[in-house]
Amino acid sequence: MFKKILIANRGEIALRIIRTCKELGIPTVAVYSEVDRDSLHVVFADEAVCIGPAPSNQSYLKIPNILSAALITGADAIHPGYGFLAENAEFSEICAESNIKFIGPSPDSIRKMGDKAFAKETMKKVGVPVVPGSDSVINDVDEAKKIAAEIGYPVMLKASAGGGGKGMRIVWEESEIEKAFQTAGNEAGAAFSNPALYLEKYIENPHHVEIQVLCDQHGNFFHYGERDCSIQRRHQKLIEESPSPFITEEVRQKMGEAALLGVRSVNYEGAGTVEFLVDKYQNFYFIEMNTRIQVEHPVTEMVRNLDLIKNQILVAAGLPIADKPREPRGHAIEFRINAEDPEKNFRPSPGKIEYLHFPGGFGVRIDSHVYTDYVIPPNYDSLIAKMIVWGTDRIHAIRRAKRALEEFKIEGIKTTIPFHQKVLENEKFIEGDFDTSFIDKNINN
């Protein structure tokens, strides 16, 4: 087992990893920017090292600073969490060269499955359905126009090296493609240091369903069912649940088998998520793989009764997966509590939390790094907490969520709590009748 793990991240995911490390008896090192010195992950880690000023490109994305922190503290492993450097193959390689274990897939797997265009081609080769589009990254606008004309509009331009809605543009007709190509490329370059784009057919009003996988060095390639992530705004997930209220058991099994076909083909190691779009006829299409832990991983943990972070660490240490797949139990829903004002087009709402009360009770889990008097900086993602509820079935989970959101009190800043309460009152959501267009069609922003 590792002697010491450095967490190359911040916020709730850093604290989540620290908690699991403590339960495994592994000392931890937190890294932090100057503006994060009062964050809870800094408080609860065994050691903490400041790695630079607030801008992420001068701190959490600064590989030399993070590596130096690992070397001076004697950390022999780095957990990247999600975002920042979690899917950076170069960082993984540098860790290996420095004799530090990167807790994630190999650089080769990150390149193959983290690159959306390459991953799509890999899935096609093993017989997994994919959305029609470019076979690799597109070089210029003329190539984009040619492919779009062949597969038909609407199409979507997507960043090849990232996710989270960055570097994505829907194009409805040829006259829009030049501007979209430029803006998507610029956004991708700023977010991922890689402006490369690929193009695919835009499937209107699909469900977004993903499969959680976990693979080790001992020939175990497991999946742990699906999460439905269709409640999105501008491709940013806001509510996730498991199991999906939409797909059938037959489709569920086929998607799981398809996900494992893909990860086996590249001898994948570690935790990952294989993402699909599912149309109204329940045809599913591979869209991308996230070669890291997901924000929404607690949903799977709640219904499958396992610790994905623990298993990530065990696999990275060369040990077999501890938690084999088991039948799902009940229903779980995760709500992303963001420091945003839903009444002002979800504008970020950084500032001081003047009062905070987390909900509790059976079946309610809160993953968060904030507290009363904590000052939310304006420099990073607006996620400040995740509320995950479990119920014996979906209706029970919804009722429990309503109760928990009533107890969730944050003063001093605006949050997405009122938005979530509005969703839970919507009959279509309650009935499970929703897709990725749900918010635009049903919730007044």
Outline of the structure:
This protein is α+β, with helices and mostly antiparallel strands and 445 residues long. Helix content is 34%, strand content 26%. Helix 4 (89-97) runs antiparallel to helix 5 (107-114), helix 5 (107-114) crosses helix 6 (116-125) and helix 12 (394-407) runs antiparallel to helix 13.
Question: Can you give a write-up of this model?
Answer:
- The protein has 445 residues and is an alpha+beta fold.
- The chain folds into three domains: 5-103, 3-Layer(aba) Sandwich (Rossmann fold), CATH 3.40.50.20; 132-201, 2-Layer Sandwich (Dna Ligase, domain 1); 207-442, D-amino Acid Aminotransferase, Chain A, domain 1, CATH 3.30.470.
- The chain has 15 helices and 22 strands.
- It has helices spanning 11-24, 40-44, 63-73, 89-97, 107-114, 116-125, 141-151, 177-192, 249-265, 297-304, 308-316, 394-407, 417-424, 427-431, 438-442, and strands spanning 5-7, 28-33, 47-52, 77-79, 101-102, 155-159, 168-171, 197-201, 207-215, 221-233, 236-242, 270-278, 284-290, 331-338, 340-341, 347-348, 351-352, 355-357, 364-368, 375-376, 383-391, 409-411.
- Strands 13-12-9-10-11-14-21-19 form an eight-stranded antiparallel β-sheet.
- A hairpin with a 5-residue loop joins strand 12 and strand 13 (284-290).
- Helix 4 (89-97) runs antiparallel to helix 5 (107-114), helix 5 packs across helix 6 and helix 12 packs antiparallel against helix 13 (417-424).
- The protein starts with a strand and ends with a helix.
